[in-house]
Task: structure prediction
Amino acid sequence: MSGEPIIRLRGLAKSYYRESLEIPVLQGIDLEIPAGGYYALMGPSGSGKTTLLNLIAGIDRPTGGELEVCGHTLNGLDDDELAAWRSTYVGFIFQNYNLVPVLTAFENVELPLLLTPMSRRARREKVEEALAHVGLTEWMEHYPRQLSGGQEQRVAVARAIVGDPELLVADEPTGALDHKNAEEIMALMEGLNRDLGKTIVMVTHDPKAAHHARHQIHLEKGVLDRTIEVNR
Amino acid sequence: MKYLRLVLRSFLRSKRRTVLTILSITVSVALIAILQSILATLNAFANNPDASNRIVVRHKVSITNLLPTRYADWLRQQPEVESVMGLQWFQGVYIDRSNFFPNFASEAEFVNTVFKEEIVEYSDAQFREFLRDRNGALVGKNLADKYGWKLGDVVSLKSELFPITVRLTIRCIFRSKRPADELALHFNYKLLEEGVSYMKGRVGTFFVRVHRADDVPKLIERIDRHFHDAVEPTYSETENAFQLEFLKMMGNYSAIIQMITGAVLVAILIVTANTMAMAIRERTTEISVLRAIGFRTSQILAMLMGEGILLSVLGGAGGLAIAWLLAGAVRGYVGTFLPYLQNFHIDAGTMSLCFHATLAVGTLSTFIPAYRAARRPIVDGLRSL
Result:
């Protein structure tokens, strides 16, 4: 687990502007996360944890500092380069699953692979493998409306891992789930980290979910408060 | 191609909305296709290449004033002239006014040379019978078929212009190149002269056929100059110009049709834009998710544009199909009382116009909402859930 840093943040800052008023959200974040790490970002509402996750995932741009993830400095990439980078290195898991309702589970998982030059047969193999990993082989032809919340989130996890990215980012992945399903998703993510060596950065309010991570990073009013190693 | 499935699934996301929008485009495009085809048909009538070497000579004051039939003698002496025929619009009613068709009192012996391109196929024996019988009638095949007339049948026409009813015997049936030309009936001018005293030695128009179309302008000028100081001065023009004057009696139909077309196009643009704006707005989060997992802005834009264009092109294709089906009805019903529309059809130009118009509607209506959605910051889209 003590690999080279996969995420390096130096003086990272993010501000939003409302007319001429600057609203700082993150200030001077210095952080290194090693490859294979499992980190939970925690903190009260407005502390900047989701903003930090968005910056690490390359879906938002910092207003200051340096951001190096998976060996790429993201600051200088244009929109298309950033999109290509995300498709290669990052898998996303959202609180509300965010599956495309008109596509089957199989087709949802296949989406990231459409961006690759993979053949149809190769895509099928990869999708079936990912769905088997989350235990939904039998449900691949079902539409999201035909699945439970827990199953939808499993499909989302399969979609996140199908392209074999180095980094998984999860924003409140258990926020919309009951306790049982939340535990199953957490166990699944723990397995991805432990068995497949995926680096995971997860935003959560839930101390039980955070307990599954190996480290907890606490943010307070946009600054890094402390990093705790989780003892299990 | 691999994104096509995504486009098609999104396209059918709200089936009712999609179908209703396609139907609204279908109806609008059918209307545009019919109107534009009417315009093209009418314009073609006034741009008849077969009439390029024919001149119509009428009284300078108006079409209702008559010219002496002796003018034909001078006209026939002109070296450019191939044939001359006096022709009078008879406006005869067959049974009742709903049975409208063009009918003329013509100088029978010249009708097949002056209208060589219109009276194309006929039996010489039948034509001789037509010339022999003072009450004979020469009718187009379409017209004969429409009323079930056969050779030897007697047809009565009551004129709305002259105090006379003529009883005609069908003596010759001809075929033409254009269906509209087969709706005409000609009978011997002498019958009109005998029945209406003030028509003796007088006629409404002369149709003059010249050997070479290039000679038309100078002959027109010479005819009108020659009769300039006569008691009945003439006004000569090409047959196409003459037809155009009749069409103009319907008002500035071209401007009216173009205005309606423009209004319908704006309406379908608004309907499609509204549909696409709704369809895209309700997918804000989904679009942001696609972008988060690596879809480029241009790919998102292309998929959304594909949906909009598919919507409008399907509507356009449906509209053209309906217009094509309606074309037969227009020929059969409207063409009966407006013979200009006997040649009505949806031509390639109109189809091309409708196709490009629907492409433009699809592109214009989708581009702005699609561009905004594709360019929206990903985090804003994810937040809008």
